[in-house]
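re: ur question from earlier - yeah i can do the single chain one, its not a big deal. heres the input i used so u can compare w yours
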Amino acid sequence: MKKRIIVSVFTIVVAAAVIAGGTMAWFTDKTEPTETVFTAGTVTIEAGRKIDINDSNSYEKYGTFFPDKVIFWKQGKDINGTPVLSGRSEPDVVLDDSDEFCSLGFDGELIVKFEHGIYEPEIVIVTEVTTDSSYPPESADVYVSATGEEDDWKRVGTANNGSKPEYTINELNILGVPYVKYVMIKDVTEKEQYNPRPSGNPPDGFDVKSIQVKGYYTEEDNWNPGDCNTRIFTIENTGTKGIYLRGKLTGNWYQLDGEEWVEWLDGGENIVTISLADKDDTDWEEEDGYFYYMKSIPGTYSEQDPENRTVELKVKVCLAKETGNDYQGKRYIVNATFEAIQSSNNAPYLAEGWELEEDFYKTNDE
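and the output i got, formated as tokens:
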């Protein structure tokens, strides 16, 4: 019994997301500032996931890695408005270090996916090839993402064809991104530069030879009965107001169907447990299926240092000792969502969807 879905994360890896809590009577992470004389405070959070370097159950390797597959390819036209030549239209060439390349076409777009995410990524490397020194600059904006979702992309810079006619290696720093699994390249070459036009093939935008990301590559393919894997989530309050925070972690089993992972509905619900890793030394508590951070997290209005607006949730994900052979080769995907609500005016006790018991929090800092 199975249901086909798109899987964007891997074994015991978490795709962190952010959703709103409460009603519009309170500031939550989806509240938009009002355009009036008075500026309303904001509640926003950013969630990420990082490996625990002390977790011996994880296989970790540092290096520079190529993506596994192209998941989106929208090639633009050449400068004449006609299709790009067929010999320059195969996007899979960017997946390794061959001598081939593909042309994005003007306003073209390419998205690649890594089989396993790259943690603590340092740089994304985009290699461009221009074989005609008479060509003007060719450029493409480069973005990275952990989930591939529309609102999760971060621009890291612009790649160009630099020193023509040699290969140009663009090394773009990745700052403030804990985990990368997708890279997107969008052509931004200006057509107006081609007057007069260079000789040879008609200009067709940015030419991509390869894409790589440098960082830590981690996979967990040896999760055995009785094993526990430690995972850490980092959450930063990027809004102006102080907030209270809670998170919910859920999971599902998947099996390999050909080359695609699909949901496996025969997996037992009680085989996997997710709990606080340090119950006796933490500011988090479990209550009614949520992990609550028991202190107010200041906003940017009162605290400029991001370190003082950032908290960590450390959990352990355990596979029961009695797990049977039916689970061999299966994958368990954990999904995490975090909700934030303003910490002032008793919002967590009154807002719909929160409505906590009186004095739930140890402190009620504003």
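Residues 49 and 233 are 4 Å apart (CA to CA). not sure if urs matches, ping me
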